Amino acid sequence: DKFNPGIDGSAVRKKYGISADDPVAGIVARVQKHRRFDVLIRALSRAIDQIPRLKVLLIGRGTHMEEIAVEPVHELGLENNIIMTGYHLEDYPELLAALDIKIFLVPGSDGSCRAVREAMAMGKPVIAANRGMLPELVQDGVSGFVVDDTQENLARAIIRLVTDVPLRRKM
Asked: Is the pTM of this model over 0.90?
């Protein structure tokens, strides 16, 4: 009941100044050095170069947030596209509902990939790294894409799901 496709994310989009027709990708993760945010941010930069309307919600927090996320986003001039929402509890399902695409690169310490399961329960296609149990959760080409997480592969998968709306809806 908590994570279902009927939840409305429009209030979240409005809160962050995202229009109804802007494509939105997002990641839910603790912002830590081993979570590959460096690769993700460079991949997002490539995707945003091709799709300037792309917005990204970075949902989470971490002890090295400035170094890992804030500074690289600023250095690449992506502040208008990458929105750091911080940690959310009460409105978390609405944040997921605002996404068109969920990205997940490194399973957490328990390996269960809970954030992927929650997004999939809401009918969101997932771009997942070929790590841990992620390939078992995400059927490549069916419920999302499983990629070797280089910046090129991630950017290509993001661009494909943003630009191919029928495929994204099918997934």
From this structure: yes
